[in-house]
Amino acid sequence: MYISSVIISSRHVFRVVDVFQGYTGYLQQHEWPLYIFDGAFMFVNALMLNTWHPMKYLPNDNKIYLSRDGATERLGPEWKDSRPFLITLLDPFDIAGVFMKRDKEKFWDHEDEHPIVGQDTIVTDKAGEAKSAV
User: Residues near 104 by Cβ (< 8 Å), separated by ≥ 6?
Assistant: First the structure.
C-alpha cells in the first residue's frame, strides 16, 4: 500500500506540473511524458494491487478488529447505524454528527468485553454460516 501511495502521489505531482505549464507547456506538447508518468504508473499500480490485493491481508469478518497492542485480534460488535434511513442516505459519514459532537460508541476502548479471536469464539462467514475463528 505504501508503494501504491508513492506511485499515485508521483502521478499527482506530474499532473500538477502539467496543469501549471498550461497548453503551451512541454508536457502538453509531447506525448511521451503522459505515457510514462500517467499510463505506466497507473498500469504498474493496477498490476501490483491485483497481484497483492489488500483484502488478502484483512480479516474475512468485518467484526474482527485489532487490539491496541497491534497483534491480538478481537471479535467486536456488529456495526449498526441508529439514524433514520433518509438521514443515513443524505449523510452517510455522519458529518453533521461530527460538528454536533454526537458521541459514538467506541467499543475498542472496552477490550475486556470482547473475546479474543481463536479462544472458543464463533464467527460467521459472509454467507452467515458459523465457522471457527481460529
Answer: 97
What CA–CA distance (Å, rounded) separates 45 from 47? 5
The CA distance from 42 to 46, in Å, is 6
Q: How many CB atoms lie within 10 A of CB 65?
A: 17
Nine-digit cell string for 10: 508521483
Q: What is the pLDDT, as a whole number, of residue 40? A: 92
Query: pLDDT of 47-59, one tens digit each?
Result: 999 998 888 877 7
The answer, yes or no, to whether residue 45 has pLDDT greater than 50, is: yes
| Percentage of the chain modeled with pLDDT above 70 | 88
| 116 contacts 74 by C-beta, under 8 angstroms | yes
Q: How many CB atoms lie within 10 A of CB 133?
A: 21
Q: Which three cell numbers stand for residue 112?
A: 475486556
